[in-house]
Amino acid sequence: MTQSSISSPKLEARDLTREADGKIIVDHVSMKVYSAEVVAVVGPSGAGKSSLLRLLNRLDEPTAGTVYLEGQDYREMAPRELRRRMGMIMQMPYLFPGSVAENIRFGPQQRSEDISDDDIERLLERVGLPGFSDRTVDRLSGGEAQRVAIARALANDPEVLLLDEPTSALDEDAKAVVETLLEEIIREEGLTCVWVTHDRAQALRMGDRVAVMEAGRLLLIGSPQEVLNA
Amino acid sequence: MLNHFFTDPIYLSAAQALVAGLMALGMMLIASWSGIHLEKEIIIALLRGLVQVVAVGAVLLYIFKGPAVLGFAILAGMMALAAKTAEKRAKGLPGAFRVGLYGIGIGAGAVILLMTWAGVIDTKLTALIPIGSMIIANSMNSTSLALDRFQGEVRSHVGHIETALALGASPKTAIRPYAQAAVKASLIPRIDSLRSLGIVWIPGVMTGMLLGGSQPVHAAFYQFVVMAMILTVSGLTSLISTLLIAGYIFTPAEQLALSASN
Questions:
Q1: B164 vs A97: CA distance, rounded Å
Q2: pLDDT digit string, tens, across residues A96-155
Q3: Which three-class secondary structure state does DSSP give residue B190?
Q4: Beta carbons of B255 and A59 less than 8 Å apart
Q5: Helix (H, G, I), strand (E, B) or coil at B201
């Protein structure tokens, strides 16, 4: 997927900055993410990658700059609506106590929408966990829990998916399974993604474009080949 | 034995206080021989406690002669002090004083007014002030317990709370399980005291009434009344406090303003 210079971006960070306790964590980052594009953000630990992601769905407040979702300044949007449209997968699954189905229902329930058992089963099939609906979450392996977290985020029908090191807490086998699964879902659904990772190889594999961050600044953004040659 | 030496009730009370104090100092010496050195703390606490409580006794002597409205004014002052204490215990939690004040004010205020209106608490200041202050003190303890537990729960579940927010939940929904855990934690000691009432212990009010010459059954009923009021006020204040605190730990853009515990 390549961006078109004439199409407007799905998501745009403009001069996005976050300062906390006198320290600049994200330093005037501007970037555009086009529809159905995956931008992988890579950089060493403490580079501000996860902080950038938290600014994108407004879990943290920017001290300067803003984000546009489909051309609309996100400060003009209700935070709940913004977050529904921008799903987030965190490093840890953070499943809520209860069953797998209850977790998947959580998002739609917030808008008083019901999700049918068939829809839940379809989502579970999509993440490779058919028949897991009634399982309690404490009986899941790390990889299974992360896949339930993915299904839970997808149940909200997001337009953009923010991924914060979604495979880094998993063992090698589960990591490969979850990465492949995410890639399939993202491509099939045509999801617009910002995928944060400290794993350069993963960034080059997953990103249509790769953004390199260091010390809160965006150093470079380009195709995997351009980043590799930089 | 002491009543053989003292006939004046004031001297008798002072002598009783002296004997009890000496007993505490004896414990201090035993602790000291065992290598537990709290001499300074114990002596200061004993002296301070004695001076404070005797001063209050002396003040009450005059206040008890005043009108009921004075009693309510004193209880209101106690509520503010209780909120200040609850705030100190909930260190690091924004808005704790206000939340404590509203929680204690509404919870304890409602119970005191309702029980006074129903005639369970006498409007005579000799009843209103001690019973009222007992309700306020318990209300304060519940608020402190609930807020402290709430803060601990929230700080150790930041990931879950932010996940809920990221899924489009309201702040209230995101913290609901932790607010519920906090209210439960503040109620459990009260339920335990009610359960063991009379079997494991005979609490203060009943002891006081028995010492004052009341009928045991009458004293027992009133003790139950007090315990039921304490249970009610504990539940009410911790519910109100945890409900209100949500307004202080989230920003207007629905971001969690408390960081994770280390």
A1: 12
A2: 999 999 999 999 999 999 999 999 999 999 999 999 999 999 999 999 999 999 999 999
A3: helix
A4: yes
A5: strand
Edge-to-edge strands of the sheet including A64-69? A23-33, A11-20, A64-69, A72-73
3-state secondary structure labels for all residues of B53-66: HHHHHHHHHHHCCC
Helix, strand or coil for residue B167? coil
3-state class (DSSP) for residue B254: coil
B170 CB neighbours in chain A (<8 A) are: 80, 110
Q: Taking CA atoms, what residue in A is nearest to B166? A: A83
Instruction: Give which of B74, B216, B239, B245 is closest to B154, Cα–Cα.
Output: B245
- The span from the CA of A10 to the CA of A85, in Å, is 11
Q: Do residues A219 and A213 lie in contact, with contact meaning Cβ atoms separated by under 8 Å?
A: yes
Q: Taking CA atoms, what residue in A is nearest to B159?
A: A94
Q: How is residue B27 written in tokens? A: 């414990």
Chain B residues with a Cβ under 8 Å from any Cβ in chain A: 159-160, 162-170, 173, 177, 251, 253-256
| Residue of B84, B156, B141 whose CA lies nearest to B108 | B141
pLDDT tens, residue by residue, B198-216:
777 777 788 888 888 888 8
Three-state DSSP state, B105: helix
pLDDT in tens, B11-64: 888 899 999 999 999 999 999 999 999 999 999 999 999 999 999 888 888 888
Read off φ and ψ for residue A62, nearest 5 degrees: -65, 140
Structure ipTM: 0.94
SS3 labels along chain A: CCCCCCCCCCEEEEEEEEEECCEEEEEEEEEEECCCCEEEEECCCCCCHHHHHHHHCCCCCCCEEEEEECCEEHHHCCHHHHHHHEEEECCCCCCCCCEHHHHHHHHHHHCCCCCCHHHHHHHHHHCCCCCCCCCEHHHCCHHHHHHHHHHHHHCCCCCEEEEECCCCCCCHHHHHHHHHHHHHHHHHHCCEEEEEECCHHHHHHHCCEEEEEECCEEEEEECHHHHHHC
**Distances in whole angstroms, Cα of residue B250 to Cα of each of A25, A152, B87, B179:** 21, 24, 18, 14
Chain B contact present for A18, CB below 8 A:
no
> Angle of helix A142-154 relative to helix A117-126, nearest 10 degrees?
130
The CA-atom distances, in angstroms, between B253 and each of A25, B176, B240 are: 20, 18, 23
Provide the 8-state DSSP code for B219. H
Q: How far apart are CA B43 and CA B26, in angstroms?
A: 11
In contact, B138 and B110? CB cutoff 8 Å: no
Q: What is the largest CA-CA distance in chain A?
A: 50
